[in-house]
Each structure stands twice: as C-alpha cells, then as structure tokens.
Amino acid sequence: MKSYRRWLAGAAMVTAVTGMLLLGGRLVGRVSAAAKDTYENIETFTNVLAMVQKNYVDEVTTKQLIDGAITGMLNALDPHSAYLTPDLYKELQVDTRGSFGGLGIEITLRNGLLTVVSPIEDTPAFRAGVKAGDQIIKIEDEFTKDMTLVEAVKRMRGPRGTKIHLTLRREGTAGLTDYTLVREVIKIQSVKSRTLEKGYGYVRITQFQERTDEDLDKALKALEKENGGHLTGLVLDLRNDPGGLLTQAVRVSDAFLDSGLVVYTDGRLENQKQKYYAHRQGSHTEFPMVVLVNGGTASASEIVAGALQDHKRALVLGEQTFGKGSVQTILPLDDNAALRLTTARYYTPNGRSIQAMGITPDVVMENVPVAKGDAEHPGVPSVREENLPRHLDAPAGGGGAPKSKDDKQPRPIVAPQGGDESGGTPDATNPDSEAAKDPQLHRALELLKSWNVFKTVVAQREP
Q1: 144, 128, 132, 133: which is closest to 178 by C-alpha?
Q2: Are residues 172 and 212 in the same domain?
Q3: Above 70 in pLDDT, residue 355?
Q4: 336: phi > 0 → left, psi -120 to 50 → alpha, else beta; which?
Q5: Domain around 126
Q6: Which one is catalytic: 78, 324, 353, 438?
Q7: Catalytic annotation on 32?
Q8: Which of 241, 266, 310, 438 is an active site residue?
Q9: Mean pLDDT of all residues in 107-125
Q10: What is the CATH number of the domain that holds 301?
Q11: Of 23, 60, 192, 405, which sits 20 to 30 A from 146 (CA to CA)?
C-alpha cells in the first residue's frame, strides 16, 4: 500500500508538471525558479540512480542508494542535521533517558575528523585518559575520515562488557595512541550537588535529560535541609554540559526565575516561533547565584546561562561558551527512521542569538589545568561551534526582538587567576585545596560571600 501511494504521488506530480508545460509559456513562467530547479535536479538524481545501479561494480539496492542520498543531503546542511536510521533513532531516544551502553565521550566533527568535545566523568573513556580535543583516527580498524557522527556513535556503542579499539591523535604530541576500552552501561547522573560551606550550595548539571528538572528540585531541597532550611548562595555549574532537551532548559531556568521570558525560538514556519516563560510557583529567588561556564557549555546549558544573565538573576563566570544557538526537531518517518533537522534559532530574553558566538561571561576567568585525578572537570574543550564546518551564521544584528537601552551584552570583567582582590591565589600552594583544584569555583564562592557582606552592610546603613 505504501509503495502504491508513493507511485500515485509521483504520477500526480509528473502529470501536474506535464500539464503546466502543455499550457504554454505563460503558465510555465509562473512556476517559481525554485520549483523549476527542483524538477530539473530530481531528473538528474533519477538518472544518476539508474546509472549507478546499471554500471556499479557490485549489485547495489535502491534502498542503499536512497539512504546514502538522504544521508548526504542532510550532511550538506549544518553539522547538527542528520538522517537517523531506525537503529540510530532508537539510540537517540535512549540517550535522552540517560542510560546506554558505550564509552562515555561527547564527540563532534572538525575538518572531517571525529573530535572529542568532552569525556564524561567516571566512564571507560575518562578513566583511560581520553581528553577533550583528541582526534579519533580509527574505530577498530576503520579510518574515521568523513565518517558521520551518527555512524561513529553507532560503532562505539554496544553491549556491556564488549571491547572496542580506538586510535587517537592528541594535538601537540607525536604519533598515535591506541586504546582498548570495555563498554559499560553509561548512566549519566544529570544533577549532582553538595554543600561548599555552611549556607553555600553547589549544583552541577551534566546534561539536560527527561527528569533533570525533578532531579534539580530534589537537590535544592536536600541542600536547604542540610543548611538549616535555607541557602545563603548557590553556584550552578554548567561547565562541559553539552545540552540536551530544550524543555528541560526552560524548566531549569524557571526554577530560578519567578516571571518573564526565558527563551524564544524563531524559524521560517509559524510553529517554529515559540516563546517560553517563567512562573512564580516553585521558584527559588531568595539567594544570589553564580553560574560557571566554559567552552563546553553548549545549547540547553547556554539557554539557562543566558536567561539568568539577562534577568540579572545570576552572575556568569568563566569562559566564552560553545555557541550552539540552533534548535533541532526530530521528524519521524514511516519506516521508523527520522530526520534530525535544524528548524530554528533560539534567542535569550534580551534578543541575543548565541549561534556561533556563545555567552560572554560577566566575569571572564580561565581555569588552570585541573589537578590529576579530579573527576569533576575533565578539561576544557578546544572545539566551538564556530570551528565546525557548515555551521549556521549568527543572524545579522544578533537577531530577534528589539532591545531597550539596558538590554546589552554584558561587558565582561577580567578576573585575576586565583580569586582574591589583590590577584593572589589563596591556598594555591596546597594541591589538595579547592582553590588549587578549581579556581573558578573558588572565585564563585568568594563572590557570593562578598555579595552577602555587601548586602548586610547596606541593610545596616539604611535608616
């Protein structure tokens, strides 16, 4: 029945085109240049298909060629659009639930080579010493040059306990390094939290999954309980968070905002123009916040950082973020496959597009190399959206909504490496101290303390 419907649709299209041609030059002139170009190129495609099937050295099926053509079509767009076979579509659905069999690395394509964005902590890749920026030259014995992302992910995933051989090249080192890794069930804990000091909490979001908002709510309640019922300040760590679900980014932002626009999307179609707002119920607005970001902060995590920054709800500290400001929509197909298609750009409440630009922190501060064995921050990725081939450009003027005089990109403050006002590095001589392991986190805690001291002094001076 499906093939009959497709034949009928094709016949109808041919009939329509033939009918227009028979009506003469006036009607043909009304056919848009784009439509005419489409018809001509479809004819070229069918000719090539027939020639390949007739002349190729081995027999090849129509499905193989069509699948390859669709894959190539999507690869010719931006780096985030892709054709998902039924197996890959199923894996994507598993991915958002935070549990899958694999190695534990986030990857991207750079100059046609698979490149590690970030290893996920406490996974086979992380424990083996895979670093951000490493190029994956071979998977098993197959070279990865021009291998698609989805194909690479499929090859690296597999049943728990099975082995896989990777060959990596690291920038600045000679030769290649071989790794034999054993796949595990990768369970990504979306939200992690702890108390830094009495009254000051720390929450890290590693990825935006289906239940991230629920996990965040539990973490905040646990921190409040540990600290006498309320928090004096909070550090929200979004470093090396590759993003995830847009809806979860909105809900996480909503948890810290009591009103106003969180993010909006803008695309060619009306249903791609969406606005998302914060609500008062369940909001945590009673304490100051510092948000930590770096080059691995991407997509959904940039939405959160941008929303909290625009609403002046939090101070953003760290390094320029990744710059992925596009929205991908999953469009299922009849055969259980799907298209992952870039359909819109997203904008912060003040109308800023993050695409290929990223979020500029209020306080710019690089992190020193992380101490060996520190599992929380596996390194800063060297790849950003602007480095990816065929990336979408930022819209002219930053995009979106008109801005008021106050709605400007924040002017960054360059913070000294270490943290105190004199530019020193407190406790830097002690390699086990928080300041030595993570200067950005140490600086964030200092800023929260300073804010509360300042607030207390002002309150005392008020008549």
Answers
A1: 128
A2: no
A3: yes
A4: left
A5: 85-187
A6: 324
A7: no
A8: 310
A9: 82
A10: 3.90.226.10
A11: 60
